[in-house]
Amino acid sequence: MDIEILYRPSYSLGKITLESGEEVRVEGGSMVSMSDGIDLETGATGGLWRSLSRSMFGGETFFQNTCRAPSGGGTVWVSPALPGDLLALDLRRESMMVQSGSYVASAMGIEVETKWSGAKTFFASEGLIMLRASGAGEMVVSSYGAIHEMELGPDEKYTVDTGHLVAFS
User: Fold this and answer.
1) 117: helix, strand or coil
2) Phi and psi for 48 in degrees, rounded to 5?
3) Cα separations (Å) of 106 from 54, 118, 123?
């Protein structure tokens, strides 16, 4: 799977190129278009309870789409729900916390579940529930507005208001 983000930082469009038989999971409402021959299946990913939890508490849709490329490969185009930016992240058998509503698409090796974000965000009236993405593969996240990626050193700390946070590990 190859991900290319176009037209950053606003009205971004993600081009996901799949090889023969390769699959990508796409959040409901995020797929813009797909090439001929892509097999599209819609279902409750992870079962009834996980899908219900993700949709009720995580700000995501109950149903997700699985796009499978035909023998010659194919392309799936995705966009954020609101005008804004997209970012491709590469998870390498690790976990990443994602703001609810920011998940767009991921490789099939990534599992997304809801996670309580703590009392501080509860009392600040911010994102009460976040998503935990874990596994290996690429993932696309979105924001309302531009995404500014920061990489911190081992002992470095930085404060970001949870209303402006997209993802962190």
Assistant:
1) coil
2) -60, -50
3) 15, 25, 31
User: How far is Cα 46 from Cα 128, in angstroms, rounded to an integer?
Assistant: 22
Q: How far is CA 103 from the centre of its chain?
A: 3
- DSSP annotation string for 12-66: -EEEEEE-TT-EEEEETT-EEEE-TT-EEEEE-TT-HHHHHHHHHHSSS-S-EEE
Q: Using the 8-state DSSP alphabet, how is residue 162 labeled?
A: G
**Residue 34: what residue type?**
M
Class of domain 2-144: alpha beta
How far apart CA 27 and CA 106 sit, in angstroms, is 9
pLDDT (tens digit per residue) in 49-81? 554 554 544 455 557 899 999 999 999 999 998
Q: Compute the distance between CA of residue 130 and CA of residue 115 in angstroms, rounded to an integer.
A: 5
Residue 86 falls in which region: left (phi positive, over 0), alpha (psi -120 to 50) or beta: beta
Do 123 and 80 contact (CB within 8 A), yes or no? no
User: With a threshold of 0.85, does the pTM exceed it?
Assistant: no
Q: How far apart are CA 49 and CA 36, in angstroms?
A: 33
Domain extents in the chain: 2-144
